[in-house]
Task: inverse folding
């Protein structure tokens, strides 16, 4: 049996509602012959007569009563489908997976997630922490929707929006002489062992470049798996490190044993960006997210 069309079902319901082919045709804005032809074809496809035609109108037959009832249900569901699609154009419904690198996750995610939830309350926000190479691979493969990471991101298949500059500060033991002030000259900086993250973290390479710009030599002998471990090593007096401003409130808060010193107006920094696939149908939503999270991210990266 050839399936009825939605238009034929719509015409059949209209005739049932109006009890008249002419009135139903006018309500659907088609000619009466066109509607009559579609109803006749529908009856032929179903193998039953839907309407008893008379001089004064049309009456649904007993055989057609169940067909009309089900046709109403189909049209209602189709309307709900369209309404759902309309809602999704203006909102994010369902899962939204955000990938973030480990050296940003504990510090930037709270502000980002709260902003996204306010902006798209129907979205189910999922988080995934990955190092840069794996995050970019997951982003390209569609396993995640958004990536929060550090520039540069050299991928032509991705849109990348800058959110903020995240300056580096010198982190050193709270009982170190330089923690109380004094000139941060090259000799003073070089006299302290510089602690770094282990290979695989993009922040390691950024810190090495930053040290080079400050004239600080790094031998890379002492490494840590994460920023928290790195700062604990600093607090234990094992050396100093370069700490992104976004991490200060957590890693160098009072009582941690870590003090920070500004490196001046020309301090090196990393650039925080948000990235997504250019082919994503949600890219307009993602741009809106980027616009809204720029302020909280910049505030977290600001040097007090």
Result:
């Amino acid at each position: 049996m050839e399936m009825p069309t939605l238009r034929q079902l719509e015409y059949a319901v209209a005739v049932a509602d109006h009890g008249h082919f002419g009135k139903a045709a006018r309500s659907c804005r088609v000619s009466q012959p066109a509607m009559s032809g579609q109803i006749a074809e529908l009856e032929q496809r179903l193998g039953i007569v839907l309407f008893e035609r008379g001089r004064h109108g049309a009456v649904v037959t007993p055989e057609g009563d169940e067909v009309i009832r089900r046709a109403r249900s189909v049209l209602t569901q189709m309307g709900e489908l369209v309404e759902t699609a309309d809602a999704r154009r203006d909102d994010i419904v369902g899962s939204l997976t955000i990938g973030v690198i480990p050296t940003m996750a504990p510090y930037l995610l709270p502000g980002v997630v709260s902003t996204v939830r306010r902006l798209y309350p129907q979205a189910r926000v999922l988080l995934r922490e990955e190092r840069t190479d794996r995050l970019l691979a997951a982003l390209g493969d569609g396993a995640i929707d958004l990536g929060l990471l550090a520039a540069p991101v050299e991928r032509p298949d991705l849109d990348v929006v800058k959110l903020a500059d995240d300056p580096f500060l010198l982190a050193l033991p709270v009982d170190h002489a330089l923690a109380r002030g004094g000139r941060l000259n090259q000799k003073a900086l070089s006299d302290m062992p510089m602690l770094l993250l282990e290979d695989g973290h993009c922040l390691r390479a950024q810190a090495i470049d930053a040290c080079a710009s400050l004239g600080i030599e790094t031998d890379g002998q002492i490494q840590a798996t994460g920023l928290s471990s790195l700062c604990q090593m600093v607090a234990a007096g094992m050396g100093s490190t370069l700490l992104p401003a976004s991490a200060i409130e957590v890693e160098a808060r009072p009582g941690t044993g870590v003090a920070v010193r500004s490196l001046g107006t020309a301090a090196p920094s990393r650039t925080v960006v948000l990235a997504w696939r250019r082919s994503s149908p949600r890219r307009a939503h993602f741009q809106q997210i980027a616009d809204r999270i720029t302020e909280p991210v910049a505030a977290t990266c600001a040097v007090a």
Observations:
- The chain has three domains: 6-90, 94-163+271-301, 167-269.
- The chain has a mean pLDDT of 86.
- The domain at 167-269 is CATH 3.40.190.10 (D-Maltodextrin-Binding Protein; domain 2).
